[in-house]
Amino acid sequence: DAGVIQSPRHEVTEMGQEVTLRCKPISGHNSLFWYRQTMMRGLELLIYFNNNVPIDDSGMPEDRFSAKMPNASFSTLKIQPSEPRDSAVYFCASSTTENTEAFFGQGTRLTVV
Amino acid sequence: DAKTTQPPSMDCAEGRAANLPCNHSTISGNEYVYWYRQIHSQGPQYIIHGLKNNETNEMASLIITEDRKSSTLILPHATLRDTAVYYCIVRVGRGSQGNLIFGKGTKLSVKP
Fold first, then answer.
1. Nearest chain B CA: its distance from A18 CA (Å)
2. What is the pLDDT of residues B50-72, one digit of tens each?
3. pLDDT tens digits, A58-79
4. B97 interfacial to chain A (CB closer than 8 Å)
5. Residue A98 contacts B, CB cutoff 8 Å
6. Residue B15, phi-psi category: left (phi > 0), alpha (psi -120 to 50), beta (remainder)
């Protein structure tokens, strides 16, 4: 298995633009997590899904952020409109229900200018 | 999920054992202790987890005190590649998908 795949690896966008980050979890995993990491705030959990259903989105910073999981093999994190303070590395992770070890992707480095 | 307390940084000589402590005094009976590490610019990597018994795998050993209020991750022979931030996390384990909340972790520097 190729592991958790995130795209793009790097994204540079202008303030006000819409940004969509993508994640393909490991096949057979039914839990998916989105994280944001900055120097100031560390690794923050934004939202997690179980069986494609959002279970806890209390970490989503504001209405500009939204996440979807239309099927078991794909999830998106969208920021609209983007702001410079959204600049961070965004990680996606997945795990099974039985094995709670979470596997992380390589992350997407987002820069909003 | 219970909170954890870790020292912000530690040094270790290459080839020596690295012992990373973690306090989790408010841990609940159904919460496991997990350890992850993050090497610079990479996603976090799972190391080991346990409930109350000591655990060992190819990467490390986990020692949990009898009262479960603290634990120690042991890297038996640290190498330069073990330089990373190590996170101790407590969460509800097998059969339930609780949040996986990371604290600030311990930055381990392995020196030649």
1. 24
2. 999 899 999 999 999 999 999 99
3. 889 889 999 999 999 999 999 9
4. yes
5. yes
6. left
